[in-house]
Every structure is written in C-alpha cells, then in structure tokens.
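For anyone still unconvinced, we reproduce a single protein record, the chain in one-letter code, the fold tokenised, and leave readers to judge:
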Amino acid sequence: MIIDIGCGGRPKGDVNIDLFYDTSPHTVFKIDPREIRNFIIADAHHLPIRSNSFDLAICYHILEHLINPAQALKEIRRIAKSVFIKIPNSPIREHEKHLYTWSETSIRNLLSLYFSHVETWIDSSIYDLRKSRIMRLIAKMRVLSYPILRIMRRIIGLEICAYAYS
C-alpha cells in the first residue's frame, strides 16, 4: 500500500494525507476532501498511522515547507518501509515559501540518518535539452554557455528525487 504525504489536490496514494483542506498556501490546486480517496487531515510531523502500515510513502514537494523535516522523516520511517521524495532544487534562486533547500548530497545525508539504502538523482527536462542541436552549439560558445544554462535551469527548474529504504 502507498501513502501520499502532503497530497495536495493531486493525490497518488491508497491513503492520502495533507495538513490543509480547501485551499493551501503552498499550492494553486483546491483540495476537496470529498473527492480524495481515503483522505486524512494530519501533520507530517505526527502521523496518526500505525507503525509499518505501508510499503511506500511518497512526498512530492513537502519537505521544504516543514518546520522540522527530520521529525517528518522519522515519522515516515516509522509508518513505511520505503519513501520516494521529490524536492525542488533551484541553484539560482530560493523560493520565498520554502524553509529549506537541499543539494543532492545534503538530502542523501539527511535520508541516510533514517534509511540504510538511499538513491538520489536529478530530474529535469534541461538534461534532454542539452542533447539538442542548439544546446550543443551554445555549449561550444564557452562565454555564453554557463549563463544560458543558468537561465534555462531557472525557467525549467530542477528536482532532486530520492528513493530510500531499509
């Protein structure tokens, strides 16, 4: 079974948890608990779920909003055997609503405190763009390539993905 923690208006789990209902300060999607399967209003820091109840917990773009992400990860580890996490990673500018930012290394280190096996990777369509002909031409112009890639990262965005299990 899968639990989606911080599901927002687009739930993906068999059980879906969010702290907010109706509207959230973190999303443009309206959350209607009547339309979300097995919806529970709860805080990720204190999950009202029995230990070892789920095979997988998924958390898309919530850790950066939490006051104590380490406490939330401790709770996630308590209720689930594994976790799949996506967090934003903008090397150019931090988002004003985010309390934390991580690099691929720092999120791996944090997850390693709670899970014995951690895999991380960067997910972005910018890597597909780098293979295109125009990007190869820009890369040859060394003076322009770095500023253009920075701008592209800002426009497209990057996500750090992590899968952790014990």
